[in-house]
Specification:
single chain; alpha+beta; 20% strand; globular
């Protein structure tokens, strides 16, 4: 529902912040990773995710899009809710979590409070292929001035194609056509060859 909230940082603690955006104070749960990245900024922008259950609506905020994407992957696993996902992102950095999942490092995941051996194995089993497919730069923020190829590649990865295969097909399409192709033309051409 909310992609991000940008406003004045009114209150900051290691577990949540309050951001005043347009005269409304938003209570946003955060990880220690986000807390450390906020620093002493007076104004901040957090990428958010709204959790709705019978008795509460809770906002979770992340310093960047990559951390939010990893959080959503984590909570998609049975037995891992938003608070456990936030605990995971507070215990070790998102990059360490991603690397541990891709490399199958059960011991590192298991050291996180609230994650037992079975949960750690389930996290790796269910997310290893997804994170490998997305590639190592999934946690990095994409540059604002994307090329048509970057946008097409991003769209193909979101559709479920492996990053390496999609990139190869896009390169072939761009080499075949000498004129500049639009994002739509690149995607359509790539879909025929994937």
């Amino acid at each position: 529902m909310y992609a991000y909230i940008d406003g004045k940082l009114v209150f900051k603690s290691p577990s949540y912040v309050v951001i005043d955006a347009g005269g409304v104070g938003y209570h946003i749960n955060i990880s220690l990773n986000t807390y450390s990245l906020l620093g002493d900024a007076e104004r901040c922008k957090l990428y958010t995710w709204l959790y709705v259950k019978e008795d509460a609506h809770s906002l979770y905020g992340f310093a960047d899009e990559g951390e939010r994407r990893l959080f959503l992957h984590l909570i998609s696993i049975s037995g891992i809710g938003p608070n456990t996902g936030r605990m995971m992102l507070s215990s070790i950095t998102p990059l360490e979590i991603q690397t541990a999942i891709i490399n199958g490092n059960v011991a590192l995941i298991q050291r996180i409070k609230g994650i037992g051996p079975k949960s750690a194995q389930r996290v790796i089993l269910e997310l290893q292929d997804k994170l490998r497919k997305e590639g190592p730069d999934t946690l990095t923020t994409m540059p604002a001035n994307k090329t048509a190829k970057d946008e097409a590649l991003s769209a193909l990865v979101m559709l479920g194609f492996a990053r390496n295969a999609a990139e190869k097909v896009l390169d072939q399409e761009m080499n075949k056509n000498k004129e500049d192709l639009t994002v739509e033309q690149l995607i359509k051409s790539a879909l025929k060859n994937l």
